[in-house]
Structure to design on (607 residues):
């Protein structure tokens, strides 16, 4: 493994763990959406790290994928924020721990 | 194996029709508002889905002599550009999707007529079906991911469609949170595959990674694939969103979600597993997931008091049966899986649609309060009864045929224990199906619910589906042949699949 790739992968793993921890620990629904955004960005960073591995040039394929992935996760977050707004209308709070009216 | 280029549309024909249909629906909605016409959107959606079904038939005819059809996206070449690869499995899955979609759209023209925002509803339904069709036809992982997100986004919004109540909104947010996390896992898997192979095209991935040494990276990829696709297809440790989201959605959407969306997730898992790994590598893992999924889901289902929630748990159990076929890794087992996908889409679609008719008429989802409804709504209850018997695997319904093949294939692959657990679960599941049937047909109490039979369109759709279940249960040969072709193209046709792109 190339040395720069190692740094990239360490960063990816750290970021992924931070995102998952954010999803598990935080109670604020907006922060949960930010956690998802962190997860997506970890994956994007991983693409970027791998794109540097081809000797001689930077692979543009990974970059085009990152562009599309940013758009896709942006739309997911937009829908999530719209739902958060609707949750606030019904529950008067955006604390995820209060969303327990449905049974298991 | 001849490479086919569609020079006009750049996309496979069924996908083009669905996408254009979805995009034109808002225009028709505004025309309807302006000129005060009636039912134009319902009519349009039905026409679009019927045309899709016909175009799938056309594509199938083109496929007859060749093994794989390839469509290049924007004329790019495959190692880097996107592409669609259509084989018999894609045709089988997209046919299932369009067939159930047609029935559901016709049903919802009556069911949803009192709701507002119908323009959005039909746009989202068509786009969700476009997403699923794109997934089953995709030729590279990133194309699959784009359509995966299209399907996901439409289904999040459709689950939370009745936003004036608290239930759908809460269920929708839960669904979004879990599915989006799974999508992030998929994206990370894609990046790892890209790092290993330098491309995301399925054919190139198969030729470079299949059969490679069992290194740590492949194990990580495997587990992340299971997480990524497993959330959408509700494999048990990852199923927690499903029993909330499916009951809270409007009934036609529940039918689509349970009937085809989770199976599309299963399709993705199957395609990727067979492309990347030899069957021996994933046999044990998938078999143990199958056992856990069906056993736990059946136990949970028996505890439910809510009829739609019971059906949702039953869907999870059926996913467990389908996993049996994948875990065998043989053509016969995978044939059983995809036959069960079709049969389950009809059975569970029918169960949700007729349960939806009953829930709409009576206004309650509590099974205890539905006592004696069967005497007031005989046709709907008959359809529900056929669906339940099919889900339980009673002979003369199509559920029996596919379960027979699935359990038989497990014996053939040398896993008799899996068969025993499957049969026990199947028998156990009759307990909750029969409980619902008994409640529905038993004598009504004094202050019984004052209900009448559902409208003619809804009764018509459910009756047709009940007849399909019985007919395909008695004469299953054509379906078995089609499912066999699909599974052979997945396992034996892998060489064709690879050589269609790599000369």
């Amino acid at each position: 493994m190339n040395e720069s790739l190692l740094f990239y992968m360490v960063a990816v793993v750290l970021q992924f763990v931070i995102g998952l921890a954010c999803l598990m620990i935080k109670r604020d629904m907006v922060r949960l959406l930010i956690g998802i955004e962190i997860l997506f960005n970890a994956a994007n960073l991983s693409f970027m790290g791998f794109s540097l591995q081809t000797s001689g040039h930077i692979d543009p394929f990974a970059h085009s994928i990152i562009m599309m992935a940013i758009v896709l996760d942006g739309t997911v977050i937009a829908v999530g924020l719209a739902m958060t707004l609707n949750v606030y209308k019904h529950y008067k709070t955006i604390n995820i721990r209060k969303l327990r009216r449905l049974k298991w | 194996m001849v490479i086919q280029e569609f020079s006009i549309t750049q996309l496979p024909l069924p996908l083009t029709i669905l996408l254009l249909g979805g995009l034109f629906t808002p225009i028709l909605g505004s025309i309807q508002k302006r000129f005060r016409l009636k039912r134009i959107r319902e009519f349009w959606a039905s026409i679009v889905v019927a045309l899709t079904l016909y175009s799938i038939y056309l594509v199938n005819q083109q496929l007859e002599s060749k093994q794989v059809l390839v469509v290049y996206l924007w004329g790019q070449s495959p190692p880097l550009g996107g592409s669609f690869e259509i084989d018999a499995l894609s045709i089988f899955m997209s046919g299932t999707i369009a067939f159930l979609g047609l029935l559901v759209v016709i049903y919802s023209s009556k069911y949803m007529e009192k709701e507002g925002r119908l323009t959005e509803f039909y746009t989202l339904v068509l786009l969700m079906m476009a997403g699923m069709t794109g997934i089953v036809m995709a030729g590279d992982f990133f194309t699959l991911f784009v359509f995966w997100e299209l399907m996901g986004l439409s289904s999040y919004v459709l689950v939370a469609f009745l936003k004036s109540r608290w239930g759908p909104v809460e269920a929708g947010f839960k669904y979004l949170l879990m599915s989006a996390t799974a999508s992030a896992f998929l994206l990370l898997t894609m990046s790892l595959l890209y790092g290993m192979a330098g491309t995301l095209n399925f054919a190139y991935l198969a030729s470079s990674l299949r059969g490679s040494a069992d290194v740590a990276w492949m194990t990580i990829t495997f587990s992340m694939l299971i997480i990524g696709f497993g959330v959408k297809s509700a494999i048990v440790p990852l199923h927690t969103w499903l029993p909330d989201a499916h009951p809270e959605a409007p009934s036609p959407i529940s039918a689509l979600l349970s009937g085809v969306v989770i199976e599309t997730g299963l399709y993705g898992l199957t395609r990727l597993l067979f492309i990347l790994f030899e069957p021996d590598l994933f046999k044990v893992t998938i078999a143990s997931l199958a056992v856990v999924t069906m056993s736990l889901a059946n136990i949970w289902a028996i505890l439910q008091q809510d009829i739609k929630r019971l059906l949702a748990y039953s869907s999870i159990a059926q996913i467990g049966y389908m996993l049996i076929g994948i875990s065998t890794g043989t053509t016969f087992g995978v044939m059983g899986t995809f036959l069960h996908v079709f049969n389950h889409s009809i059975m569970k679609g029918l169960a949700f649609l007729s349960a939806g008719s009953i829930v709409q008429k009576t206004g309650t989802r509590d099974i205890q309060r539905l006592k004696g409804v069967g005497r007031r709504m005989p046709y709907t209850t008959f359809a529900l009864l056929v669906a339940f018997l099919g889900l339980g695997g009673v002979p003369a319904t199509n559920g029996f045929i596919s379960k027979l093949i699935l359990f038989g294939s497990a014996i053939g692959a040398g896993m008799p224990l899996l068969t025993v657990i499957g049969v026990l679960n199947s028998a156990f599941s009759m307990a909750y199906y029969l409980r619902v049937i008994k409640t529905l047909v038993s004598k009504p109490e004094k202050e019984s619910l004052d209900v009448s039979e559902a409208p003619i369109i809804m009764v018509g759709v459910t009756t047709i589906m009940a007849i399909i279940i019985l007919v395909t249960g008695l004469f299953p040969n054509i379906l078995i042949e089609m499912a066999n072709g699909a599974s052979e193209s997945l396992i034996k046709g892998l060489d064709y699949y690879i050589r269609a792109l790599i000369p």
Notes: The radius of gyration of chain A is 17 Å. Residues 60-91 of chain A form the longest helix (32 residues). Residues 22 and 35 of chain A are 5 Å apart (CA to CA). The mean pLDDT of chain A is 88.
